[in-house]
Design brief:
The structure is a single chain. The protein is mainly β. The protein has no helices and 17 strands. The chain has one domain. Helices cover 0% and strands 56% of the residues. The protein has a 6-stranded antiparallel barrel with strand order 6-7-8-10-12-17. Strands 1-16-13 form a 3-stranded antiparallel sheet, with no helix packed on it. Strand 6 and strand 7 form a beta hairpin. The chain is globular and about 45 Å long. It starts with a strand and ends with a strand.
Length: 218
């Protein structure tokens, strides 16, 4: 989901995933990924606390040569993609609609993910996907395969050295929604602090614009 005024991160992180090692300066977050009941397959997902805040990059280095013709498998089918440099970091976060969550509620059972731009994406473009999160229910469709991101488990600041060997990726599709989402205020806490101490305005989310699907590479 797209949002604004999410927590302001520390400016620089080191990152290592299966594709390479990077140093990135992070911009403020503007996405919140929530557990989702997709097509009625996981009815308890909206009650789960494992959220991820997405931070785009001000800069990232070096510009590595990354692989072409990577095959990505998920429940929608097989996709062939050319992987390019990373553009976003997903950070485990606690969320509340009423007050800033305490740091003890930040999930520790999910990893950070490093999301890479893709080009030459080929594969199915599913539509009519029902989604239900803690925020709303809706119907979405994959709008533009070329805007998809491949998110890899990442070792951030050398705190999770086994992450690059984790085979559990996310393929994040850009989607359109059937009905408007509206605007909803949220409170978020993660390793960069609570959102309410970082901004004058309250963080908010505005729409479903991405669906991240568990995926594997081969």
């Amino acid at each position: 989901m797209r949002g604004a005024n999410l927590p302001q991160p520390k400016p620089m992180v080191t990152l290592q995933d299966v594709f390479g090692s990077y140093t990135a300066i992070l911009d403020r977050g503007h996405r919140l990924c929530a557990p989702t009941n997709k097509n009625g397959e996981d009815p308890i997902a909206p009650t789960r606390p494992q959220h991820l805040t997405g931070y785009d990059f001000v800069s990232v280095a070096p510009n590595l040569v990354e692989p072409d013709n990577v095959q990505v498998d998920n429940q929608f089918g097989t996709y062939t993609v050319d992987v390019r440099n990373p553009v976003r970091l997903l950070v485990p976060s606690a969320k509340s609609l009423v007050a800033p969550p305490p740091p003890a509620q930040i999930p520790t059972d999910i990893r950070h993910f490093l999301c890479h731009n893709l080009v030459g994406v080929q594969g199915p473009t599913p539509a009519g996907i029902t989604v239900e999160s803690q925020f709303a229910a809706n119907v979405v469709a994959v709008a533009n395969l070329g805007a998809a991101k491949l998110c890899a488990p990442v070792n951030k600041n050398n705190l999770d050295p086994t992450a690059p060997a984790d085979p559990n990726f996310l393929l994040c599709f850009h989607t359109t929604e059937q009905t408007g989402f509206g605007t909803l205020n949220v409170f978020i806490t993660n390793q960069f602090g609570p959102s309410t101490t970082q901004f004058t305005g309250q963080p908010f989310i505005t729409q479903y614009d991405e669906l991240c699907v568990p995926s594997t590479l081969h």
